[in-house]
Amino acid sequence: MSFRKAICLLVTVFSAITVSAQLKWKNVDSLYQPLPLSVHIYFTDDKPDTAAFKAYYLIADLKDKSLAFTVDTTLNRRLTPQQFSERNKKAIAVVNCTFFSFATNRNLNVVVRNNKLVSFAPSTVENKGKDTLTYRHYFSSAFGIDKKRNAEIAWLYADSSMRVPLATQCCPIVIKDSTARPGKKYLLKDEYVHTMRLDGKLGFFKKWKMQTAVGGGPVLVQNGEIVITNNEELKFSGKAINDKHPRTAMGYTNDDKLIILVVEGRNKSAAGATLTQEAQILKDLGCVEALNLDGGGSSCMVVNGKETIKVSDATGQRPVPAVFMIMKK
Fold first, then answer.
1. Greater confidence, 127 or 73?
2. Which of 177, 193, 241, 248 is most buried (most C-beta within 10 Å)?
3. Given strand 135-137, what is the order of strands in its sheet?
4. pLDDT surpassing 70 at residue 193
């Protein structure tokens, strides 16, 4: 082996060790009481690299029937997570979720509340320049919980004409054509979808009947492995995957535990996380699937009325049109 190849190999191995090294977490339940026995809060300022780092995660038992996992939304306006917490008196935890439009104050991802689709997701982008008569079709991901309290992450097609979104378990590729909206041919033919998931199962679109769901993207973890679909979902594509920002994410474990992660960033005491670092944290926490949600200035989790991470906007918590909540029944 040449000296250059040996150095490259050592760098690769060292990078892999650095990325995969698990963080040390401290239980901070005492700071956010009262909490149910099935809900816990953890904090770390351990560093995944050389930069300052702070993060919290909440873990809750999806099968605890004394808890309700739901969402709250607004119409053509936005509220801060704190305001959502105050108007939902039984809220244990409130966290930002969907991406949204500052111009319209509306969600840009799917939101399902009480088994009803209350927000839709765009799946078409108009091309520019010489390709102005063509379109790109993509599908955003979402985190859902069904009536049996089973969690699932899928890629969705949902527009205003639909009562129930269509979902696939493997990420569809982006295609370009001259049709303004994807039709049934796109949704049903497997050549438009990656034919195989990591676990070897085929992926096709089917009705996605969830009790509660929130959209975001990209997917970070599939089948317990880091697989980030930022390019397929047209989110943070290319080199942007390595940018550090405040982050919000959700995942679930094999033993039916919900994990909500918030990473502080954009200040001297916390630089934020890349998508890869975020994915690694969730994998290390045991997530079999995990999803990135809106981050940056929107990242915020309130537990029993108290903030966890320090939000990055100088004006305080950013108003958002939707939040995911854990409620006392």
1. 73
2. 248
3. 124-126, 135-137, 175-177
4. no
